[in-house]
Design a protein that fits this description.
This protein is an all-alpha fold. It is built from 20 helices and no strands. The protein has a domain of 302 residues.
Length: 456
C-alpha cells in the first residue's frame, strides 16, 4: 500500500493543476497530458518544501502526517469538484482514426517492457543503485529518523552533504505519511519521474504547435533510451532534475508566445526554483533558466512584470535552498570546485580530452550503445530547426539558446573540474548529459515539427 503514496500525491497535484489551469471548453491539444506530466514535480516538490519547513522549525513526523493527510484530501476534493464541472462543459471528443491502433499497440509493447524493467530493478536493487543508496535514499532516511536533522547533516563529510533536499525531502515526507521507511516509495517515485519526462516532452512538443505524430515520436524516443530507464528506476535525482529542467524551459517558452500562455508565470517560476532545490547542478540550471528568460522577455517587449511574476514563483524553492545552505550549514565542497577553474581551464589537453569524451557519447556507431540513436536524431532536429525561419520564433529561439548554453556549461564544468578528469568524466558525464536529454528532445522535435508543417 505504501506504493500508492507517490501515486496519490501525484494524482492530487494533477487534479489541482487541471482545475486551476484549465478553462471552460475543450482543453488545448496536449494540455491534459501536460498537467499530468508536471504533477509529480509540482506535487512531490511542494511536499518536499513543506516537509523541510516542518523539520526546519523543529516539528516531527507524526504532526506532519496529521497535517498532510487532511490537506491532501482537501485538495483532492477541490480538484474533483473542478474536474466534474469541466467534464460537463466539455465538447465531445472527435472520432479517432483507426490508424492509431498501430501506435496504441506499439505503446502497449513499450509499457510492457517498462513494467518488466521496473519489476527487475525493484527486485534486484530495492534501495536503488549508484547515488540513490549513497545519497538520496539514505539522506531521506536520515531526515525521517533524526530528531535534529541539521545536527545529523553537519556530521556528514562525504557524498555531497550540501546537496539540496528535493528528493530526500519528498521521500522523507512520504515515509512520514506511511509511518515508517518504505522501499516502494522511492521505487515508485523514480518510476513516476521517468514517465513524467516522456510526457513533458510529448505534451510540450504538442503545446509548442507541432503535430501529434512529432510529439509521440519524441516521447517514445525518450522512453526507449536505455540510460533514461536505467537511471530513472535507479531512484537517482538526475531524472527528476531533467524533468524539472524540461518542464521549466517549456513553461517559460510558452510565456513568450503571443496570446495567453498555457501555464501561469508563477508556476513556471516555481518549476525553475525546484530545479535549484534538487542538486547543485540544478542551481546552475535554475539561474541559467531565469537569466535567459529575463533577457528574452525584455527583448520581445514583455517587460519586467512578467519577469517579476516568474521570480515570485521561484522565490519559495530558492528560499528553501538558501535556508538549508546557511542555517543547517552542511559541509560544502563547492569551494573546492571553485578553487581550480583558472588553473585548469588553460590546459589545452583537458579541452581535447573532454571534447573527445563528449564526441564518444554522441557517436551513434562507435559510441555508447546505451544511448542508441537518441543524440543523432536530436541533433538532426536541431539542424532542421536552425535551417528554417522557425528558429526566429521567440519561444523556439529561447529553447535553442537555452540548450546551447546548458551544453556549454556542462562542457566547462568538466574542463575546470579539480577532480581526476578521467574518473570524473567516466562517473558523471552520462548523468549530466541525461539531465539535458528531455529539454534537447523537446527543442529538436518541436522545432523540426513546426518546420515540417511550414514546408507543406
Amino acid at each position: 500500500m505504501d506504493a500508492a503514496i507517490p501515486l496519490l500525491v501525484t494524482a492530487v497535484a494533477w487534479m489541482g493543476l487541471a482545475t486551476r489551469q484549465r478553462g471552460a471548453g475543450r482543453p488545448a491539444p496536449g494540455r491534459p497530458q501536460l498537467d499530468a506530466a508536471l504533477a509529480p514535480a509540482v506535487g512531490l516538490g511542494s511536499l518536499s518544501l513543506v516537509y523541510f519547513a516542518w523539520r526546519f522549525v523543529g516539528l516531527g513526523n507524526s504532526s506532519f502526517a496529521l497535517l498532510a493527510w487532511p490537506a491532501l484530501v482537501a485538495v483532492a476534493a477541490w480538484g474533483l469538484s473542478g474536474l466534474g464541472r469541466d467534464a460537463r462543459s466539455r465538447a465531445p471528443a472527435p472520432h479517432r482514426p483507426a490508424g492509431r491502433l498501430l501506435a496504441a499497440a506499439l505503446c502497449a509493447g513499450l509499457l510492457a517492457y517498462l513494467a518488466l524493467a521496473f519489476f527487475l530493478h525493484a527486485r534486484q536493487s530495492p534501495v536503488g543503485q549508484f547515488d540513490a543508496w549513497a545519497i538520496w535514499s539514505s539522506r531521506a532516511r536520515l531526515l525521517f529518523a533524526a530528531e535534529d536533522p541539521a545536527a545529523a547533516l553537519s556530521l556528514l563529510r562525504r557524498a555531497h552533504p550540501d546537496y539540496p533536499l528535493f528528493l530526500p525531502g519528498a521521500l522523507a515526507a512520504q515515509f512520514a505519511l506511511a509511518g515508517a521507511v518504505s522501499f516502494p516509495v522511492p521505487q515508485w517515485t523514480g518510476a513516476l519521474f521517468a514517465a513524467a519526462g516522456a510526457t513533458i516532452v510529448g505534451a510540450g512538443v504538442r503545446q509548442l504547435g507541432a503535430s501529434a505524430a512529432w510529439s509521440w515520436v519524441a516521447a517514445l524516443l525518450l522512453l526507449a533510451t536505455p540510460l533514461w530507464i536505467e537511471w530513472g528506476f535507479a531512484q537517482c535525482a538526475d531524472v527528476p532534475l531533467a524533468c524539472l529542467l524540461a518542464g521549466a524551459a517549456l513553461a517559460l517558452a510558452l510565456q513568450l508566445r503571443s496570446g495567453a500562455p498555457a501555464l501561469s508565470p508563477v508556476l513556471a517560476g516555481f518549476l525553475v526554483g525546484l530545479a535549484a532545490w534538487t542538486k547543485n547542478e540544478g542551481m546552475i540550471l535554475s539561474l541559467l533558466l531565469f537569466g535567459l528568460f529575463a533577457l528574452w522577455s525584455l527583448a520581445v517587449g514583455r517587460g519586467w512584470g512578467l519577469v517579476s511574476r516568474v521570480a515570485g514563483g521561484a522565490a519559495l524553492p530558492w528560499s528553501a535552498v538558501v535556508a538549508f545552505k546557511l542555517a543547517w550549514k552542511p559541509t560544502s565542497d563547492l569551494r573546492f570546485f571553485l578553487d581550480a577553474p583558472w588553473r585548469t581551464a588553460v590546459e589545452a589537453d583537458r579541452w581535447r580530452f573532454v571534447g573527445a569524451s563528449f564526441a564518444e557519447r554522441l557517436d551513434p556507431i562507435g559510441g555508447f550503445p546505451a544511448w542508441g540513436l537518441v543524440w543523432t536524431l536530436a541533433a538532426a532536429g536541431i539542424v532542421i530547426t536552425l535551417a528554417t525561419p522557425i528558429r526566429r520564433r521567440p519561444e523556439v529561439a529561447f529553447l535553442l539558446t537555452l540548450v546551447a548554453c546548458c551544453w556549454v556549461a556542462w562542457f566547462g564544468i568538466f574542463v575546470a573540474t579539480p577532480l581526476d578528469l578521467s574518473w570524473h568524466l567516466r562517473t558523471a558525464l552520462d548523468r549530466l548529459m541525461l539531465q539535458l536529454l528531455p529539454v534537447t528532445l523537446l527543442t529538436a522535435f518541436a522545432g523540426a515539427g513546426l518546420a515540417a508543417q511550414r514546408a507543406r
